[in-house]
Specification:
287 residues; mainly alpha
């Protein structure tokens, strides 16, 4: 019974963290029509900056500052590369791929200069073990999930209850008409890209102490899973991404109780594939 409780709690925690990543990817696609292949590298950058800033700002200070810095970088990249020159989707896709390679190389150089190795082990500064019968669960994971949940609720409020959210939906639905009625389309699109990259960086900063290492390639697998979750949820749909993120997390964690973790992940990905087979446009996508 204790093992079931721990598994379900872990599924909830990872469901929220996967949702944070997938929603960031989804809102970017909704506003810009671009699948951001640099999303995993920006997740890695959030973890790397959080680790680098912790000695100066403390761990929690770094968790706040790192996503803000990455969000500003994302805003600048979107403005200079994707929006100012109105790139076509294929060119924009290749540009985000190029950004991913550049960020990975910069992270490699930084880690080699500071630690002399490509994979740096992180020592969690906070653990807070929670007793569950004869077993313990790392309380930090619960705190990370609560922070991610609060951010997602705030994003939902921005999306559905503010003028900015209304502008984003207008730009997503009809960019030309939005421009005619006076919405600053370029600024809105750049702000959405910045917000999406900040969400990826926040996920990286929160997950770093859980995985306990930072490396230049840590975002590659994250990108693949996040893309599948966002697509199965319906690109541009916040609600769909949330639902699929939790379905994926519960499938992976429950299967891990029965089989090898790699097979469990494969089974969870297969479940997402079945969603796309039944509903190719995704749960929240329009027909």
């Amino acid at each position: 019974m204790e093992l079931w409780a721990l598994t379900l709690l872990n599924a909830l925690v990872w469901g929220v963290l996967w949702a944070l990543l997938a929603v960031g990817l989804s809102v970017i696609y909704g506003a810009l029509g671009v699948l951001n292949l640099a999303h995993g590298a920006l997740y890695m950058l959030g973890a790397l900056l959080s680790w680098a800033l912790t000695p100066t700002l403390s761990f929690w200070g770094a968790v706040v500052v790192a996503p803000v810095l990455v969000g500003l970088v994302g805003f600048g990249l979107a403005w200079l590369l994707l929006i100012k020159h109105e790139q076509d989707p294929l060119t924009a896709l290749l540009m985000t791929f190029g950004v991913m390679l550049i960020l990975q190389q910069l992270a490699t150089i930084l880690l080699q200069m500071t630690t002399g190795e490509l994979r740096h082990a992180l020592s969690p500064s906070v653990r807070w073990p929670i007793a569950m019968g004869t077993r313990f669960y790392e309380g930090y994971r619960v705190v990370a999930a609560v922070i991610a949940s609060a951010v997602l609720l705030g994003l939902w409020g921005l999306w559905s209850g503010t003028r900015w959210g209304c502008s984003v939906r207008a730009v997503r639905d009809n960019r030309k008409l939005a421009r005619i009625v006076g919405i600053p389309v370029s600024w809105v699109r750049a702000s959405v890209f910045g917000l999406g990259t900040a969400l990826a960086a926040l996920a990286g900063a929160l997950v770093g102490p859980i995985t306990r290492e930072v490396s230049p390639t840590m975002g590659i697998e994250i990108l693949l899973v996040s893309v599948l979750i966002a697509v199965a949820g319906g690109l541009g749909s916040l609600g769909g991404s949330l639902v699929v993120a939790f379905l994926y997390s519960f499938a992976e964690n429950l299967l891990t109780m029965l089989t090898d973790p790699m097979l469990a992940r494969a089974g969870a990905l297969l479940a997402i594939g079945l969603i796309l087979l039944v509903r190719p446009q995704g749960l929240g996508g329009s027909s």
